[in-house]
Amino acid sequence: MARDKGPIVFLLGPSGVGKSTLGQWLAEDSALLSLEIDRFPRGDGIDAEGLRKEWDSFFSGGSPAPLVAAIRSRVAEAKAAGAVLSFPSRLVLNASRLHELRDLGVTSLVLYGTAAACLNAFLEQEKMLKRVAGDLVEFWFSQNRHSYFEFSRPEFAPFRVVAFQKDKRVSRADLVAEVQQRAAA
Fold first, then answer.
1. Which phi and psi angles does 167 have, rounded to 5°?
2. Rounded mean pLDDT of the chain?
3. Neighbours of 60 (CB within 10 A)
4. How far apart (Å, rounded) are the C-alpha atoms in residues 106 and 68?
5. Which residues, at least 6 apart from 66, have a Cβ–Cβ distance to it below 8 Å?
6. First to last CA, the chain
7. Rounded to two decimals, what is the model's pTM?
C-alpha cells in the first residue's frame, strides 16, 4: 500500500447518514484537512476545492494517483495530519475503484444505516436548516434510491461503517475511533 504521509479518508453514503458531520469531527479530533465536496445546495465542491482536472480524469476511469497527489499537496500546504473528503449522496464509485484508492493509501468508507434511520436524520437536518422545500421524503428517495441500493450490495460490505444502532446515531467517539482504526490499517 502506497502511503506518503497521513491518512486520506473518502466518506460516501446516503443523505442524512452524517458524512459532513463525521468529516468535521475527524478534522477536529485528528487534525485532518476537511474538504467538503458535498456542498448541497451551494454548488460543486470539486470545483470549489480546485480538484476538477484530477477528479474528472479519475472519475472517467483514469488513474487515481494524480487526484491523491493533489490532495496530499493540499494536506502539506495546510500542515494537516491528513485529509477527509465528504462526497454527495448520489456519488457511487464502484468497489474496484475504491480498491484502487486503497492501494494508494486512501481509506474509502460508506457510512450506512437503515433507510429509515438515514431518512429520519435527513428530515431532522432539513427541518433545522430549512434548505429543501416541498416533499422531503420524496426528495430523499429521488436523491438516494440508486446510491442506497448500490451501497447495499455485498461488494461494498468491507467499506461500510454502521452510523446508526437501533436507529440512533453511533457516538462521535465510536465513529471517529473506527475511522482512525481503519485508516491506520
1. 65, 15
2. 89
3. 7
4. 8
5. 53, 54, 57, 58
6. 10
7. 0.89
